[in-house]
Amino acid sequence: MSIDSSLPICIAGQWRLGRGERYASRYPATGEVVAWLNAADLQDVEDAIQGAHQAFLHSGWAQRKPHERAAVLYRIAELIRQHGEDLAQLQRQDNGKPINETRALVASAAGTFQFFAAACETLEETITPSRGDFVSMSLYEPMGVIAAITPWNSPITSEAQKVAPALAAGNAVVLKPAEITPLLALQLAHICDAAGLPKGLLSVLPGKGSLLGDALTRHPLVKRVSFTGGTRTGKHIAHIAADKMMPVSLELGGKSPTIVLDDADLEHAVAGVLYGVFSSSGESCIAGSRLFVAQHLYDPFMQRLVDAASQLRVGDPADERTQMGPLISAEHRQSVERYVAMGLAAGGCLRLGGERLGGPAYERGFYYPPTILEGLSNRQQVCQEEIFGPVLVALPFTDEAQLLEQANDSLYALAAGIWSRDYKRAWDLGRKLQAGTVWINTYKQFSISTPFGGWRDSGLGREKGRLGILQYMEQKSLYWGMNQQPLAWAGLSREVAP
Ligand code: NAD
């Protein structure tokens, strides 16, 4: 197929062109077109949901034994691994992340399917302690059609984290990837087909969230929305869900503090802070973007941090040595620049970066360098709003009680980091920090077996973990009567009954 032809999309078991407008997925490093697509429109949403509903009712997927569903998910994991390099290269082009990072994301997606296959075939339902002449059981049923809505910053990983547990639970899924990064979601649908997933159980609808995501969320046949994205969009979805009495899980934004205590191992702390905020070019919900450093360490620590940050290799995502690729789009880079200007206008000063990189290597892509601001307070806008770019604000502290107050002073509460050699201090602080995940002497490390999610404006619900599958199921209690006599209330018994 020529690059100018539109890619078919997957709607209710058929690969065909979307009925919406034609648009291009572009490589953020050069602006070149990677693929053309026709977005889905509202009729496509309806078709995908009806197809998913029919597949849920009639394909037999929900009735398959857990180990049989698991076998398909294991095959999906295997196929992701087999096509791993192609997928990683395509993802690099779709969203501009460095190739080493996209390889890790693809491997993580395969691991997620494998994990939820295992969770599916080992999920236990329970016989609960009985308080009468009955056997009582707690069981789980699939819900029906699930809408999965994902952002652009970690395609295939975000998608796997929703699609794998939702399918494992016996549901059908309509997946809406971010408009600008649709390619990996489409590849995932091809892989699911090849692995033998019944037709119609997974549809993929590229296009505008305000149209398609909104319609999916409102649709009466959609029984749950699993959303990852910005807090504003998440709240919009939560309002619609409230009217439908529909459960939602919302993985939203962050403004995470990292804290360097005065007894920290500086080499570890510098490496961790750098990775925490600048990897993925800061386009990460858990970016450690507010840095609190003990006052008496502040100058030497900042010097080491600035020196190390200035050595980070920003450039071609195809080069294996690259640590930071371009930002996702010209528009997003402008938004990052506005935040840096705002910080400077508020009295901040630049320790590093803050200006576009010059030279032929950076001309066509949306590159932005690692940027470090200081001289600001935690209350200022750049410390309160998510920038979603490679911008760190450093804040010295003297008093630990005040530090805790400031670290927790945010609408967001997704993650936090602590660097200290004193495990008792770190334990105390770690318990008092308000965040869904706290890393101690490490940062941005993940395990699919550990739940993940945010407090407050960072979200609702948890993904991952063995029990992550349960959010895509309805709990049901079943009672089996074991009484020899009729229930006593009616006053009947064998002796008096005719
Ligand atoms: P976004 O909210 O703009 O979009 C996310 C998804 O929602 C996209 O697929 C989009 O098309 C869709 N959407 C947009 N409007 C919608 C509507 N009205 N109804 C339904 N769906 C709609 O977010 P983004 O810019 O793509 O992603 C960046 C955000 O995602 C950041 O805030 C980041 O912190 C967050 N994020 C959170 C996590 C997490 O796990 N907590 C992970 C990655 C990204």
From TrEMBL:
The active site is at E251. SUPFAM superfamilies: ALDH-like. Pfam families: Aldedh. Keywords: Oxidoreductase. Residues 15-477 form the Aldehyde dehydrogenase domain. InterPro entries: Ald_DH/histidinol_DH (IPR016161), Ald_DH_C (IPR016163), Ald_DH_CS_CYS (IPR016160), Ald_DH_CS_GLU (IPR029510), Ald_DH_N (IPR016162), Aldehyde_DH_dom (IPR015590). Belongs to the aldehyde dehydrogenase family. This is Aldehyde dehydrogenase.
